[in-house]
Each structure stands twice: as structure tokens, then as C-alpha cells.
Design goal:
Largest sheet: 8 strands, mixed
Helix content: 25-40%
Strand content: 15-25%
Radius of gyration: 29 Å
Low-confidence stretches: 1-5, 328-343, 357-368, 473-486, 498-505
Number of strands: 15
Structural class: alpha/beta
Length: about 500
């Protein structure tokens, strides 16, 4: 073996046959590279050729991983062996049972399975490329062990997969939460595969004709397990409000908070603005959430729910919640708050069983006193909560679904045919839960993965249903208030300042 010898791929007959959309595997350097799609898109062949091209060009240490051990060598290893023979590289590659070695420059490719094998994975240090085949089975737990271990300068992590669930970790990592500064990901399909055989094309066309639903998943790479979504009508295009001024319709708005408590982990909370549109109709905007993904270093709530213990005292939480209130009139319109305390932010709802000090929360919240009494104490922040009827919480799924819906036969027409339920774009956990919260088809119940987020929304909605709308007093029409603030001009100036406020302030 000659150490660090650079070889010419073409000299050895190595002309990698890579899908044009995946040329970045060889000609660009970024930390994360991914490819997804359906059958016959040439993902696996492209990745295999790219691995061999890198190993032939210069000394490269590659580790191929799969979440589970079964068939890792039978499938990936066989594919790489076949590609070595196809390119006529048998003279320079030694194919063993558990590895492939370039005998000229010392390049080596080995295998690891990831599930419950973290001690073995943590030992990887001098790795140039860590590749994941069948990455639809990749878990957040495995990733958390891999990315800090693959830390060699210039190292890369590659992933290829056929989508299964639209909320699989690899979809979130490479598509939904993509950081374009360090990630390239491409969708590759048989339709744009220049190496597609006639037999594969005929199989795809036959499947499209005979089994259209299966065709979408098998050949177009559409996630297959999406039928049990609880809020299928929610879309990013229609239900996320960008650049919306939360302070519009101030006089016709009320503000609510809902909390799903926890024993020792972070509770999840939402803040909802309810706008009265007349005739007993409302518009709802989820304008804040706690905790945020930024507070947890980019993770979603369900990812740290069972691992991150909330060390904040009740008083500290109360202070944070008042900051998250953000758009309430408190401090800006003191006269309104004093005259009618229902217009201050006192509309906070919590699940009834916790307020009664039953269930898990009683341990955290002061023995048998329960949340309502304990949190209302001055030493705990003097924060008051209300308790909606438990039967009301159970029916809010249908209420929220109806608020999200519109007449699809007519189409989305702003101001005429549109939903009445929206989310601000920074509420990532709420958006994620609305998009992906599912039923557990085996147990016929809600899947627990995103249930906390939706529970807090349902708790808030169930309490809102019991609170009649009360309009705020218009400052410009209140001469007494204007005199208190030393004149009408001052009152109008404060009003303008309030109208400029936003959730990002």
C-alpha cells in the first residue's frame, strides 16, 4: 500500500454514473448531503459510485450506517461489490466480509448499525464521510450520537432514503428545518433518471395505471403514512400568517393563554388572540408559544419533552409568561385595566384535573393545594388560572378542525372563503403539531408524540368557549383618559406606539 497516493478515476476505468441532480456528492463540500425519492431514481447507485470515486481519488475513511443491523452487509455491501466489478476496479479493491479497502492508497469503507450501538459509534473519530442508507429509519437519538463524533475537519454526513412518514427525523433534518449554509438535499425520481431502463419505466407506468395510490408512494416517493392526521386541513400556505400586525382590531380582540402542565418537565403553553368578527363569529391567531425551539437549541418540544427537566420556579415561569403575553394592554392603557379587570390578561386556562391537585402536577405544585391556589400565592408570581369543563376539552378537536376549514369547492378567497384559525410563523411547535399530529391507529387514540402541544390549544379553546366577548374602550373616545395622560395628543401618541408593537419586539 502506498499512503496518500492520489489516483486518477479515469485511469482505472472509474467513470461514476451519478444522477445529474446528485453531482454535488463529488463537486461540492458541505456538512450534510441528502437525496430522497421513489424507486428507480438512482439514489443508491449514485451514492455507491460517489463513495468509490472518493476512495479511488484519495485516501478516504468512510463508514456506512443503518439504524438496524439486519441485512446491512447483504444489501449495501453487495451493491458496492457489484459496482466495483462494474467499473473494473477489482485490481485495487480488496472486498472482505465486513469492509472494502483500496490497496493503493489505504482508503477503507466499513459498516455500523446504530440502534442501541452507541458505544461503538462513539469510537469513530477519523471518519471523512458517514453515510446513512435507508435513512427513513434514522432516529434523533442516533443522530445525536453521530454528529458530534464525526468531527474531523472537512467531514461530511450523507443520507439517502425513500420517504415513509412525512415527519420522520430525516425529513425534518434535511427538508423542513434545512440550514442552507451547511446542507444540500435533492429529490430524485425515475422520471428524471437518465439511466432508467425500459423495464423499470414500464413497471412504473403499469403501477400508475393499476394502483395510483401505491404509485405515488413507490415511484414518486410520497410519504405513505399520512391518512391518520388529526388536522389534515392545516397547510403552511393558508394557515400561517406572515407579517400580520397583532395589534389590529385592538378594540374587538381578547387574549387567552392555555397551559398543559407537567410534573417536572417543561409545560407547554400557547397564547391565542380572539378577534370578534360580528354575529358571534371569531378569528383565532396563535401568536406565542412556550417553550420555543430557540430556547431549546433548535429542537422541537416533543424531542426534549422527556429529557429536559424544567428548573424554573413557578415565580420565574410567571415572569416569563407575562413577557410572552406581549400584546396585552397592560401598562399601556392603565385606565382600561383598572376599570374592567376582565380586559387585562387574566384569561389563563389549565386542565381541570391539575387544578384539583390530582394527577402528576400535585407533586410539583405544592402538595394538595393544586395549581390554582399555589400559583396565585405572591411568592409564586400571583398568576391566576381558570379551569374549563373537562367535557369541553374533549370536543375541541372538532371545533379547531372546523375553524381551520374552508369551502374547498370554491377555493381560498381572502376575506370571503377562508379559515378562521391561524398561527404566527415563529410558533414552530404549534405548526409542527398541526401538520403532523396523528392518531395511533393501533390504540385508536391520539399519538403522544405531539399531544402536549395540541392539549394546550384545546384547553385554551375550551376556556374561550365559556368567555363572552367584551370590546375594549376606544382611547380616542375617552376624554377622561385623555386628560389623565395630559391631553389628547399624548393619548394618541401612546396609541400609535401600541399599534406599532409586534410579537417580535
Amino acid at each position: 500500500m502506498i499512503d496518500n497516493v492520489e489516483l486518477d478515476n479515469e485511469e482505472w476505468g472509474m467513470k461514476p454514473e451519478i444522477h445529474p441532480k446528485l453531482s454535488f456528492l463529488l463537486d461540492r463540500h458541505v456538512r450534510y448531503k441528502g437525496a430522497y425519492g421513489g424507486r428507480a431514481g438512482r439514489k443508491s447507485y449514485s451514492f455507491a459510485d460517489a463513495y468509490l470515486a472518493r476512495m479511488t481519488e484519495k485516501r478516504t475513511n468512510i463508514v456506512i450506517g443503518r439504524e438496524f443491523e439486519a441485512t446491512i452487509r447483504d444489501s449495501v455491501h453487495r451493491l458496492l461489490k457489484n459496482r466495483i466489478e462494474y467499473h473494473g476496479l477489482q485490481e485495487i479493491y480488496n472486498v472482505n466480509r465486513d469492509s472494502i479497502t483500496n490497496m493503493c492508497n489505504g482508503s477503507i469503507l466499513t459498516y455500523r448499525y446504530l440502534h442501541d450501538n452507541y458505544s461503538d459509534v462513539k469510537g469513530l473519530e477519523d471518519v471523512d464521510i458517514f453515510g446513512i442508507f435507508e435513512a427513513e429509519k434514522w432516529t434523533r437519538e442516533s443522530y445525536n450520537f453521530i454528529y458530534p463524533t464525526i468531527r474531523k475537519k472537512g467531514s461530511e454526513i450523507w443520507a439517502e432514503w425513500n420517504p415513509e412518514n412525512d415527519d420522520d427525523f430525516v425529513m425534518e433534518k434535511f427538508i423542513y428545518r434545512i440550514d442552507h449554509s451547511d446542507t444540500i438535499c435533492a429529490e430524485v425520481l425515475y422520471l428524471d433518471n437518465p439511466y432508467l431502463s425500459d423495464d423499470s419505466r414500464k413497471e412504473a407506468e403499469k403501477c400508475k395505471r393499476d394502483f395510483p395510490d401505491e404509485y405515488e408512494h413507490i415511484w414518486l416517493g410520497k410519504p405513505s403514512k399520512v391518512g391518520s392526521k388529526i388536522y389534515p386541513m392545516f397547510t403552511k400556505e393558508h394557515h400561517i400568517i406572515y407579517g400580520h400586525d397583532l395589534d389590529e382590531n385592538f378594540e374587538n380582540s381578547m387574549y387567552f393563554m392555555g397551559q398543559d402542565p407537567a410534573l417536572k418537565y417543561y409545560p407547554f403553553c400557547v397564547w391565542i388572540k380572539r378577534i370578534h368578527k360580528g354575529d358571534g363569529k371569531f378569528k383565532y391567531i396563535v401568536y406565542n408559544e412556550f417553550p420555543t425551539v430557540d430556547m431549546m437549541k433548535g429542537q422541537y418540544f416533543y424531542e426534549y419533552r422527556d429529557t429536559k427537566v424544567c428548573e424554573l420556579t413557578l415565580k420565574q415561569r410567571a415572569g416569563l409568561f407575562r413577557i410572552f403575553d406581549n400584546t396585552t394592554p397592560k401598562g399601556i392603557f392603565p385606565r382600561v385595566v383598572v376599570e374592567d379587570r376582565n380586559l387585562a390578561f387574566s384569561h389563563r386556562a389549565v386542565d381541570t384535573r391539575f387544578a384539583k391537585a390530582s394527577g402528576a402536577a400535585s407533586t410539583t405544585l405544592g402538595g394538595t393545594q393544586g395549581m390554582i391556589i399555589t400559583w396565585a400565592l405572591p411568592e409564586n408570581g400571583s398568576m391566576r388560572f381558570n379551569t374549563p369543563a373537562e367535557r369541553m376539552i374533549d370536543v375541541q378537536c372538532d371545533v379547531i378542525r372546523e375553524a381551520m376549514s374552508y369551502d374547498t369547492t370554491v377555493g381560498w378567497i381572502p376575506g370571503f372563503n377562508e379559515a378562521s384559525w391561524y398561527v404566527m410563523p415563529h410558533c414552530h411547535n404549534v405548526i409542527d403539531a398541526c401538520l403532523f399530529h396523528r392518531m395511533d391507529n393501533d390504540k385508536k387514540t391520539e399519538h403522544p408524540k405531539r399531544k402536549d402541544v395540541m392539549d394546550s390549544i384545546r384547553i385554551c379553546h375550551s376556556y374561550m368557549a365559556s368567555v363572552p366577548h367584551r370590546s375594549l374602550v376606544k382611547v380616542d373616545d375617552d376624554p377622561y383618559f385623555a386628560r389623565e395622560l395630559h391631553g389628547v395628543d399624548k393619548a394618541k401618541e401612546l396609541r400609535r406606539q401600541f399599534e406599532k408593537r409586534s410579537v417580535y419586539a
